[in-house]
């Protein structure tokens, strides 16, 4: 069926929402309970937090694989080795070659059981999902459909209730993505409640963001949280720019709630890169219904997949069965018919064919046994590496602990050897200045490098002379507010003096 005639149904599993697109009606909201398996082409996506995304260099395998099967095998093996995948789980591994490299592949990995658990209820109605892609890859439709130019480096930031991510595209091609899940909308709401002391459900928080943007009742606390979030985002962007020797030209930001009023300006003021909300000129009828843009992106992604214009990443294990002649049953029936015809004309052919099949089966079984042995060897090596890692971590912990003890001991020795004697010498020196004067020190206290004195004299000139002598020594810095006459004139004058020991 041609793309222009086929209905496309986009599904957001986490929000339990679906949209249907057809050329006549455009984009329309669809109830998941009313969707049937023959309604059209089904597409969905996996959130960034449910993916393991990392580059893998196949040249480090010790040889250069050439065939697609060899490349897939090397990437799968290195994914388990380098990314510490749990051997007890099955993973769906997809990859795309980096634009500027012949041996490095951006690898996207998802837990197969987790995919099934997320979609099992939806599958009760529709049975099949034609494509489940990765959330960071949805933005490439903006370049495939000439909505954005391919002449720069763009960064997309997307916030969801329980997830958030950043993805960078270089000249229209995926470059890198990072998880921002600790700054999801739900996490921001939780932190806002902690700071303000007010309990606010996520639904009410989301409603306020839709209506008021960043101008909430607790806008000060929200600004504090967003400052932390986009300081972290700024660090990520800087590291990507430094590593790739590129400069990000534009930032586009949005959320599951749609565009949040004031957020783009807030980000631009903090990161100092031109920032815009998601406001793309996409030629789809009724696209305004999808405030999040994700269903719009999925619809365009599906169109490109159907046309064959896109190298799609597909995590779906719920694909439609192939045409009958491509199924195992159809293939078997074709073989039986061919065998029957061949048996009538060449009676000996069946015997020779069966003999060859048995030899091939034995050969394949030997290959399987060899692979099992290789897997056991690799597992043993992996276990040994894990033990070495644990031992190294323990050694690091003990060395750090010992180093901290030595630091504390040296600090205590320094304080006793340097600070205490220095203060004692200063007190002795100050007392020497009063020896030939009519001055009495009534009170004395020390804090850090400051000595506080309360002095008494029958003459205010004596006190003034005392302070001038100390100042001229260039060792001390003198501060006092006043020299005052006591209530009983017979007791003379008094002043509170602060003496700072210079460095």
TrEMBL record:
It comes from the Bacteria. This is Anaerobic C4-dicarboxylate transporter DcuA.
């Amino acid at each position: 069926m041609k793309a222009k005639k086929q209905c496309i149904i986009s599904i957001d599993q986490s929000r339990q929402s679906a949209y249907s697109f057809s050329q006549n009606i455009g984009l329309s909201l669809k109830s998941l309970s009313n969707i049937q398996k023959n309604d059209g082409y089904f597409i969905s996506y996996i959130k960034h937090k449910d993916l393991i995304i990392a580059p893998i260099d196949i040249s480090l395998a010790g040889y250069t694989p050439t065939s697609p099967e060899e490349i897939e095998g090397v990437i799968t093996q290195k994914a388990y080795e380098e990314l510490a995948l749990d051997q007890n789980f099955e993973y769906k591994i997809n990859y795309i070659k980096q634009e500027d490299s012949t041996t490095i592949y951006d690898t996207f990995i998802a837990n197969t059981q987790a995919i099934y658990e997320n979609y099992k209820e939806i599958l009760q109605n529709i049975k099949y999902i034609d494509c489940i892609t990765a959330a960071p890859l949805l933005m490439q439709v903006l370049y495939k459909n000439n909505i954005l130019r391919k002449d720069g480096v763009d960064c997309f930031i997307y916030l969801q209730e329980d997830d958030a991510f950043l993805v960078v595209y270089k000249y229209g091609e995926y470059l890198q993505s990072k998880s921002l899940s600790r700054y999801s909308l739900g996490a921001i709401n939780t932190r806002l409640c902690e700071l303000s002391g007010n309990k606010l459900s996520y639904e009410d928080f989301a409603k306020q963001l839709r209506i008021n943007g960043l101008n909430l009742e607790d806008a000060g606390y929200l600004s504090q949280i967003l400052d932390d979030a986009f300081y972290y985002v700024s660090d990520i962007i800087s590291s990507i720019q430094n590593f790739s020797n590129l400069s990000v030209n534009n930032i586009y930001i949005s959320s599951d709630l749609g565009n949040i009023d004031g957020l783009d300006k807030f980000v631009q003021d903090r990161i100092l890169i031109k920032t815009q909300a998601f406001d793309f000129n996409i030629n789809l009828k009724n696209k305004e219904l999808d405030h999040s843009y994700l269903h719009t992106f999925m619809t365009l992604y599906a169109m490109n997949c159907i046309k064959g214009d896109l190298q799609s990443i597909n995590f779906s294990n719920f694909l439609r069965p192939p045409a009958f002649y491509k199924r195992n049953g159809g293939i078997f029936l074709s073989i039986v018919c061919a065998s029957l015809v061949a048996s009538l004309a060449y009676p000996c052919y069946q015997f020779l064919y069966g003999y060859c099949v048995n030899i091939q089966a034995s050969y394949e079984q030997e290959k399987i046994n060899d692979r099992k042995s290789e897997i056991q060897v690799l597992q043993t090596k992996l276990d040994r590496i894990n033990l070495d890692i644990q031992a190294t971590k323990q050694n690091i912990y003990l060395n750090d602990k010992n180093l901290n003890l030595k630091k504390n001991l040296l600090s205590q020795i320094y304080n006793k050897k340097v600070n205490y004697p220095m203060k004692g010498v200063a007190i002795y020196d100050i007392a020497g200045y009063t020896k030939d004067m009519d001055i009495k020190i009534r009170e004395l206290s020390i804090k850090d490098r400051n000595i506080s004195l309360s002095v008494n004299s029958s003459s205010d000139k004596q006190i003034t002379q005392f302070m001038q002598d100390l100042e001229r020594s260039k060792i001390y810095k003198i501060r006092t507010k006043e020299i005052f006459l006591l209530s009983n004139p017979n007791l003379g004058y008094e002043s509170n003096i602060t003496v700072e020991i210079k460095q």
